[in-house]
Amino acid sequence: MPRRMPDLSVYLVTDRLLSRGRALVDVVLAAIRGGATVVQLREKEGSARETLELGRALLERLRPLGVPLIVNDRVDLALALGADGVHVGQGDLPPEVARRLLGPDALVGLSITGAADLPTLDPAVVDYAGVGPIFPTGSKADATPALGLEELARLRRLLPVPVVAIGGITAANAPAVIAAGADGVSVVSAICSADNCEVAASALAQAVREGRARRASSPG
Ligand SMILES: Cc1ncc(COP(=O)(O)OP(=O)(O)O)c(N)n1
Ligand SMILES: Cc1nc(C(=O)O)sc1CCOP(=O)(O)O
Ligand SMILES: [Mg+2]
């Protein structure tokens, strides 16, 4: 039986350093009230113990809301938390290893930074692709060059799994990102650094709907 895919429309990737001093749980809950559909816990600085505690606090609030929690990079923490899945990049544990450790029900996401990464994605193993960066981003120091919308559209046609686009996405450009073929938008700063995280997530959700309407009405 295939794994149940969550709604990838507005996929929040957390960053405490970009959250302007606000508590992570408050940022995440506000984003969900606004319409975020998936949350990825991305902690590049803290200790494993700290990330585990944050993950526990998030899971306690997300479970009743039915919003999946994905852990960035750390398969061990995803397993320890009983999180819904893990997101790995090209330099992280291979998706096959993540799948073997987490089992058939977990969500496994893989980063795709260009066409050269396509052979690394086995749809029997990986549930969705995070394609990016689409636009330049200040939220990831080691980001690869921006792909742009035409390359996103090309990669989307070649990828056998749902795609969330990531990197420099805002409510202003999200309709074009969705119209180019992405199934959802993944953001850090557009939500974490916003004056009002709920309003920001709601604007992104509206932008995704607008992009889908644009795609549905475009010829071909
Ligand atoms: C949804 C999503 N897509 C891509 C990434 C980037 O993952 P990775 O390339 O492993 O880089 P880090 O996030 O680990 O710095 C992501 N996290 N989420
Ligand atoms: C975590 C991450 N991964 C990327 C990739 O291209 O794989 S870009 C990125 C940061 C995205 O932050 P923002 O929404 O603020 O631009
Ligand atoms: Mg990674």
Automatic annotation (TrEMBL):
Q: Which cofactor does it need?
A: Mg(2+)
User: What is the UniProt remark on how the cofactor binds and its stoichiometry?
Assistant: Binds 1 Mg(2+) ion per subunit.
Name the residues that bind 4-amino-2-methyl-5-(diphosphooxymethyl)pyrimidine.
Q40, L41, R42, E43, K44, N72, S111, K140
Q: Which domain of life is it from?
A: Bacteria
Q: Which GO terms describe its biological process?
A: thiamine biosynthetic process; thiamine diphosphate biosynthetic process
> Where on this chain does 2-[(2R,5Z)-2-carboxy-4-methylthiazol-5(2H)-ylidene]ethyl phosphate bind?
T137, G138, S139, G168, V188, S189
Keywords for the protein's UniProt record, in alphabetical order:
Magnesium, Metal-binding, Thiamine biosynthesis, Transferase
Q: What is its EC number?
A: 2.5.1.3
In terms of InterPro entries, this protein maps to:
Aldolase_TIM (IPR013785), ThiamineP_synth_sf (IPR036206), ThiamineP_synth_TenI (IPR022998), TMP_synthase (IPR034291)
What does it catalyze? 4-methyl-5-(2-phosphooxyethyl)-thiazole + 4-amino-2-methyl-5-(diphosphooxymethyl)pyrimidine + H(+) = thiamine phosphate + diphosphate; 2-[(2R,5Z)-2-carboxy-4-methylthiazol-5(2H)-ylidene]ethyl phosphate + 4-amino-2-methyl-5-(diphosphooxymethyl)pyrimidine + 2 H(+) = thiamine phosphate + CO2 + diphosphate; 2-(2-carboxy-4-methylthiazol-5-yl)ethyl phosphate + 4-amino-2-methyl-5-(diphosphooxymethyl)pyrimidine + 2 H(+) = thiamine phosphate + CO2 + diphosphate
> Which parts of the sequence belong to the Thiamine phosphate synthase/TenI domain?
10-191
What GO MF terms are annotated?
Answer: magnesium ion binding; thiamine-phosphate diphosphorylase activity
Q: Which pathway does it serve?
A: Cofactor biosynthesis; thiamine diphosphate biosynthesis; thiamine phosphate from 4-amino-2-methyl-5-diphosphomethylpyrimidine and 4-methyl-5-(2-phosphoethyl)-thiazole: step 1/1
UniProt xrefs under CDD domains = TMP_TenI
Give the CC-aspect GO terms: cytoplasm
Which residues bind Mg(2+) per the record?
Answer: D73, D92
Q: What does this protein do?
A: Condenses 4-methyl-5-(beta-hydroxyethyl)thiazole monophosphate (THZ-P) and 2-methyl-4-amino-5-hydroxymethyl pyrimidine pyrophosphate (HMP-PP) to form thiamine monophosphate (TMP).
Similarity comment: family membership: Belongs to the thiamine-phosphate synthase family.
From the Swiss-Prot or TrEMBL record, give the protein name: Thiamine-phosphate synthase
| Organism name | Archangium gephyra
- What is the gene called? thiE
